[in-house]
Amino acid sequence: MASTMLSIASATPSASLSMHEKLKGKVKLGSTTNSTAGFIKTKSFGRVSMVAAVNVSRFEGVTMAPPDPILGVSEAFKADTDEKKLNLGVGAYRTEELQPYVLDVVKKAENLMLERGENKEYLPIEGLAAFNKVTAELLFGADNSVLKEQRVATVQGLSGTGSLRLAAALIERYFPGAKVLISSPTWGNHKNIFNDARVPWSEYRYYDPKTVGLDFEGMIADIKAAPGGSFILLHGCAHNPTGIDPTPEQWEKIADVIQEKNHIPFFDVAYQGFASGSLDNDASSVRLFATRGMELLVAQSYSKNLGLYAERIGAMNVVCSSSDLAARVKSQLKRLARPMYSNPPVHGARIVANVVGNPALFDEWKAEMEMMAGRIKNVRQKLFDSLSAKDKSGKDWSFILRQIGMFSFTGLNKAQSDNMTNKWHVYMTKDGRISLAGLSLAKCEYLADAIIDSYHNVS
Amino acid sequence: MAMRSLISERVSCRSSVLGARWMSSWWRNVEPAPKDPILGVTEAFLADPSPDKVNVGVGAYRDDNGKPVVLECVREAERRIAGTANMEYLPMGGSVKMVEETLKLAYGDNSEFIKDKRIAAVQSLSGTGACRLFADFQKRFHPDSQIYIPVPTWSNHHNIWRDAHVTQRTFHYYHPGTKGLDFAALMDDIKNAPNGSFFLLHACAHNPTGVDPSEEQWKEISYQIKAKGHFPFFDMAYQGFASGDPERDAKAIRIFLKDGHLLGLAQSYAKNMGLYGQRVGCLSVLCEDEKQAVAVKSQLQQLARPMYSNPPVHGALIVSTILGDAELKKLWLKEVQGMADRIIGMRTALRENLEELGSPLSWKHITNQIGMFCYSGLTPEQVDRLTNEYHIYMTRNGRISMAGVTTGNVGYLANAVHEVTKST
């Protein structure tokens, strides 16, 4: 259709600002009271025949957003036609054949659900009750006093991301000005979540590049230095992206300093079961804090450990000092969720409830969990062996064995990571993180070659 | 903050579980939230032990036995999907196939806008998620803009734009006297709003009133909105549910498209495909050209990423399976028609029952109004009587969900309504 674009006298709104600028309120976007309509009318009233004309868009000034640093990797991988390509970007588990894996227990649960022919009615805002019950039990242990005393507000959330976002919104509403401390480095989306929720954040030291291990002194010092009553974001197990977890003794000391400063511990538990292979062991950091009687926040995700990535199933748990408080907090979490998505999706919640709530399926799940974690441990070993054998420089690669969970922080910088992709068609995130879940034993030698080349020949 | 200084004065200690009880909580200033006006009704209904209870609260379709319905096309789609798909993350923008089919429903199978790739569209968490994404997008790129919301509207619209920090204004819509559209006041409000305001419009089957503009009225609304350079944002939660024909129900949107508006649109499959709990919907924004559509889509994705990363797959698979298969799509259209027909039948029955009871009031509006809801005109006090004396549950604005009315309860409902209104 013929369109007539009239020029506009006023300036169009400016291009997209960085979140940082927006939060500081530095720049005011252009006023919207100027008319941006451009059209020609042939009659003034009644039956109008309008010359077909296209308005200039209100979103003329919208610029292209940068590709997501993590999810964008998979998109780039898909576009690559080289047969040697390897996707070590997103943390999604792959079999040795590098195929996605749907757990047997999940298939069984879905069949049960199909046979039962359940309806698709709205869940309550807080999600499926059966799911909320089993997810809290899985996290804290069914016998935990926090559950017996009904002190935990549990709300089904849109996987880890959605659960974190709910908590961030709660913090913004009830603790305006309170800061969240996040580890340096951390999962890329943490910053986006707190930015969009308008919660200020700063970093605590975590990764020590010299030792490729934990900068424990730095971590404790930074937590101590934060204003009292800050929220400290901790990875419950299998730290993303580094794979470096505190030891049990270190966890005790972290709890000490958090209590001393009256901070609130805020756990992100995305890999329960994936770190050590044991669901209970992987929850020990959270349980330690709960046992001390501390109030805490815990986000959970079933994306990885039950392979339910796209079903978006997780939970937000807030441990309070009384059941009355837990009830109130739960009601406010609901009030935040309602204008975001009204109520959460049912399918993934039912799968989890069926698996975790059924003793036979639960045992099967534990076995599958051990199998997945076991495969990753084997791949770590093989990669280490390949690197040690091929690298004649004497560099110590044993940090790969000490790291835990799905990821390895290779220590490669951005230029070296780019070399991995551009020369070797190995896709990873620019912070040097590789997802071992996407690596097969068969490809370890190729990967070792790529890493050695990038590390030594690129600066 | 008083709370924080109080806390910092506490003696710190390594607390035992006992210690936690006397330690001040972080959450002491958290008040219990008020019950959601709509979803709270169902909670109260479920708690009622009376055998006569009737739920005409939440807008979820029920069959003539008052039972939730899973459409046959949905069951078949699920059987076909079972065991075939993996559960890998969808892209941030959701299922491409599902979005394609969804745009065809709204914009037309042969829409030039689809061919020209001018529509920025992402899968969303049903209608709520689509509205919220748009509200956040509006705030990010037009932070000083305001949204004009009709009076009345679905209550969650206010929550959504409020939590997105967008200034809200209202415009006249429902005329309590006629129980129809207050067209003159509506047009005045459009004219008087500052140029370039954002207007929220219900594409069909207005919630909660069931009052829709006529085709002629839509044309005039479109004209006036264009004259003022306003941005029209449509919430279409009931396509197919109003008349039974999805093409017919998209009429308002097609009028606006023909007039050259670059509109925004929230679509939901909660009602018309009965996928309530699956949370499947779509947000689209019509742009000037493909380049702009790509940019806008990227920004919508960037808003979605820190909210939920990527949308849930199961419901999207059901939708694309159904709409992508000629047989299943035909079955779906038949089932949607069936649901709409049953509701239209119940409207007639309710009105006739009330007239036969000799009600002094006019109940014409029951059959004039369209879609799932009837704005009865009952006062909050009358609604309370219906609940307390007759165990009939509805929202206090007098909105009756006709989907909850059956041949089994329409007589009881009519009688109760008559009893509480006969002395009006």
From TrEMBL, chain A:
It comes from the Eukaryota. Keywords: Aminotransferase, Pyridoxal phosphate, Transferase. Its EC number is 2.6.1.1. Its cofactor is pyridoxal 5'-phosphate. Residues 84-451 form the Aminotransferase class I/classII large domain. InterPro entries: Aminotransferase_I/II_large, Asp_trans, NHTrfase_class1_PyrdxlP-BS, PyrdxlP-dep_Trfase, PyrdxlP-dep_Trfase_major, PyrdxlP-dep_Trfase_small. GO terms for biological process: amino acid metabolic process. In eukaryotes there are cytoplasmic, mitochondrial and chloroplastic isozymes. This is Aspartate aminotransferase.
From TrEMBL, chain B:
It catalyses: L-aspartate + 2-oxoglutarate = oxaloacetate + L-glutamate. GO terms for cellular component: mitochondrion. Coiled coil: none annotated. Its cofactor is pyridoxal 5'-phosphate. Pfam families: Aminotran_1_2. One of its GO terms (biological process) is amino acid metabolic process. CDD domains: AAT_like (cd00609). Residues 52-416 form the Aminotransferase class I/classII large domain. Its EC number is 2.6.1.1. Keywords: Aminotransferase, Pyridoxal phosphate, Transferase. In eukaryotes there are cytoplasmic, mitochondrial and chloroplastic isozymes. Belongs to the class-I pyridoxal-phosphate-dependent aminotransferase family. This is Aspartate aminotransferase.
